[in-house]
Design a protein that fits this description.
179 residues; alpha/beta; two-stranded antiparallel ribbon; 8 strands; 41% helix; globular; binds uracil
């Protein structure tokens, strides 16, 4: 539900970008600052993109859902992220469609299951397709996509190094596909 978020967080970046990155929804920091991927997941994403040979400054970065959804265990305590519902993804899909039409990226990096479901449908399973170059019809356009896990899942992983290396390997596939 968008009602408790501070603001709508739209995508940001170069409108001529060859690469579009699609995440899930803004997190706590993004909700405060009004920009996508400026918190811990964004820092990890930037580091991995650079290491993979992709320039974050050249990419257009956005989310499937444009509002932060959260719960609090107690008043004034930390805001804990809650995954968006299909209804929320559907409500935000015209924004994502418009961003795709404006940027016309050559490649989309799909960051996690929510972005995958928003772009490719509810049967999307990130584990089955991560690190592959897919070609799919999305909103009437042929798009090339490389799915990978969400950077937050790397931060949460028990073996963070292995998770990071897997994430980096997927981004290297994207860097090669972009040429
Ligand atoms: N996670 C996301 O999916 N998007 C953001 O912008 C930040 C964290």
């Amino acid at each position: 539900m968008h009602l408790h978020a501070t603001r709508t967080v739209f995508g940001e970046g170069n409108a001529d970008a060859r690469l579009m990155l699609v995440g899930e929804q803004p997190g706590d920091q993004e909700d405060r600052k009004g920009k996508p991927f400026v918190g811990p997941a964004g820092h990890l994403l930037d580091r991995a993109l650079k290491e993979a040979g992709l320039d974050p400054a050249d990419a257009y970065v956005t989310n499937a859902v444009k509002h932060f959804k959260f719960t609090r265990t107690e008043p004034r305590k930390r805001r804990i992220h809650r995954a968006p519902t299909l209804r929320e993804m559907t409500a935000c899909s015209p924004w994502l469609e418009r961003e795709l039409a404006l940027v016309e990226p050559e490649l989309i990096v799909v960051l996690g299951a929510t972005a995958g479901k928003a772009l490719l449908g509810s049967s999307f399973r990130v584990g089955q397709v991560r690190g592959t170059v897919m070609e799919e019809e999305i909103h009437g356009h042929r798009e090339r996509l490389v799915p990978t896990v969400h950077p937050s899942s790397v931060l949460r992983a028990e073996d963070r190094d292995t998770a990071y290396q897997g994430f980096l390997a997927d981004l290297k596939v994207a860097a090669r596909a972009l040429g």
